[in-house]
Amino acid sequence: MTRNADLDLEEEEADDLLTLIAEEVKKRRLGILVRLEVDKKMPDNLLNFLINALHTEKNEIYRINGPLNLGDFMSICKIEKRELKHRGFTLRISSYFRKQEDYFKAISRRATYFSIILLFICIGQ
Question: Which of 2, 38, 84, 125 has the most other CB atoms within 10 Å of its CB?
């Protein structure tokens, strides 16, 4: 997402230029959307949702073929809204395995297969 980046800096009046720039950057986050990059394969219903939610026009949408900059999405993890968070996963050991002394022998006896579960957890910094 690209927003209008006009910064109106009055350098002569600023005691601390870095503070002034930081304040202007915060304001810029609320600027007008001028470009939204989405994957070429994004379903139209999801794209229409974004267009409505971001109050943008179709001519500001750029469908790209390739990965988006996923690093930009890390800030989403810091948003404190419960509905955006994935529910935690609680590990459960099956009753069969709780009775076993050696998991590997139990696996070989039952020809049990395991799949690896990857959990992505947003860690606030």
Answer: 38
